[in-house]
Amino acid sequence: MTRAEATDMPDDGALKTPDRLRQRASRLLSQLSTRSDRLVNEGLTQADARKWHYAVLASLEDHGPGSQATLSRRTGIYRSDMVGVLNELAERHLVERAPDPDDQRRNIITISTQGRRQLRRLDKVLDDLHDELLAPLSPAERDQFVQLLTRLLDYHARTS
Q1: CB–CB of 109/86 below 8 Å?
Q2: Contact 114, 94 (CB under 8 A)
């Protein structure tokens, strides 16, 4: 039993959270998001990485090289934070910076060979963490859950 679950239990062992709260999708998503973030952050920390490292490496692998501004849009990392993330990745030789031939004021970021290897390692770490997070669900339920979350997120991204 987790600490959060333990605080939700009175002395008689019954849940004390009101049903109307346990039936609110927004509350359930928020609580699951909190647990998911904690699990992922702790797991990536053990792998000497952060979630923004993974986001940048995945973006570069999936969509190719890009400027800092492009990477910021792709990943949702604020431009002001992107410089720090890229500095960390460059120090570890996971990305390479080169002047943009079309605009010498900006750099083009490319994933390195070491970055590709690190991304594969982080994929495995995240696969294991997601197995832990989604343990009560069957493989078909996991796929359906991800599809539903994607549909909700895509809808709200289009309407905002």
Answers
A1: yes
A2: yes
Rounded to 5 degrees, φ, ψ at 89 are -65, -40
- CA–centroid distance for 156 within its chain: 18
DSSP β-ladder status, 95-100 and 103-111: antiparallel
82 vs 16, 87, 147, 148, CA distance in Å? 43, 8, 29, 30
In the chain, % helix, strand, coil (3-state, to 5) comes to 65, 10, 20
Question: What are the pLDDT tens digits along the chain (160 aa)?
Answer: 455 554 555 555 666 878 888 889 999 999 999 999 999 999 999 999 999 999 999 999 999 999 999 999 999 999 999 999 999 999 999 999 999 888 888 899 999 999 999 999 999 999 999 999 999 999 999 999 999 999 999 999 999 8
Q: At 70, which amino acid appears?
A: T
Q: Structure tokens of 107?
A: 């750099």
